[in-house]
Design goal:
The chain has about 270 residues and is mainly β. It contains 3 helices and 16 strands. The chain has a 6-stranded mixed sheet with strand order 3-4-7-10-9-8.
């Protein structure tokens, strides 16, 4: 079990999908006559909130700088993971996929995934209150309170899942230095929960064409006498994993270590 390497990139894909939701936020400023004077896309990065705050403390006037970090800006990060027992299913259920391999058809399977809640935090940093409201208003109408994204959980198995991302709450703070009229940064923190599933390793089995079982009079098969052999195989023998042609069973009996054919009634 442990020590077998596998990586379905489930957490990575979910993080990318979460970021893509907020990757096209537009800010536009207008003059007194209503004409647009500035329009730009808000940068988005995966980074903790503390990293942005340190930069704000080190560089006071970020809005007018032409390099390094500028405002407005969006950042997000994973803040926690928790098991969701309410969505648990029978762990022995299998998802099966049959594909053509080098030596014929191969059956791949994966067991029931484990339900987990992934917590994300999205941070909005702006230099003015209006820009902060402009960003928030482009986000909130889409969450009522969830927004669903579709993700290929295990592409090799063609497993696709809808992942609801729920907006839990919003926090607001106004960070500034100096006088009360000198505003440094308006920060909104939006907390989300993504209800996802994590898959284990993908297994594969070749298609079974024939099953043979030998029965002995004792558990010591080295010295014990073999009494019976049961052979089960698809009918016809060329049947594939997707066919449903039934199967045939052949039972052979042994006397004095010889094979007994019940059809002819003789030993072989």
């Amino acid at each position: 079990m442990f020590g077998t390497h596998f990586y379905n990139e489930g957490m990575r894909k979910l993080t990318i999908a979460f970021g893509q939701i907020f990757n096209n936020i537009i800010i536009q400023n207008k003059n007194s006559s209503g004409a647009i004077t500035k329009r730009y896309k808000v940068p988005l990065a995966y980074a903790p909130k503390e990293k942005f705050l340190v930069r704000l403390d080190e560089q006071a006037n970020l809005e007018n700088r032409q390099f390094a970090t500028t405002l407005p800006r969006l950042g997000f990060e994973i803040t926690g993971l928790s098991y969701d027992a309410n969505r648990k299913l029978n762990k022995m259920n299998k998802t099966i996929k049959v594909k053509e391999g080098e030596s014929g058809k191969v059956q791949y399977y994966n067991y029931t995934p484990v339900p987990y809640n992934i917590n994300f935090s999205l941070y909005s940093f702006t230099a003015t209150a209006e820009n902060g409201l402009m960003i928030i208003e482009q986000i909130l109408p889409w969450f009522q309170p969830e927004y669903t994204v579709t993700m290929k959980a295990v592409p090799e198995m063609d497993i696709v899942r809808d992942i609801p991302i729920i907006l839990n709450n919003i926090n607001y703070e106004d960070s500034y230095n100096g006088t009360f009229t000198q505003r440094r940064a308006v920060i909104y923190t939006l907390n989300f929960t993504a209800k996802t599933y994590l898959y284990g390793p993908m297994n594969n089995n070749k298609v079974i064409k024939k099953v043979q079982d030998d029965l002995y009079t004792d558990t010591n098969t080295t010295t014990a006498k073999r009494e019976e052999r049961i052979v089960v195989q698809p009918n016809p023998t060329t049947a594939d994993a997707d066919d449903d042609f039934g199967f045939t069973t052949t039972i052979s009996f042994f006397t004095d270590s010889k094979k007994y054919n019940p059809t002819s009634g003789t030993d072989e």
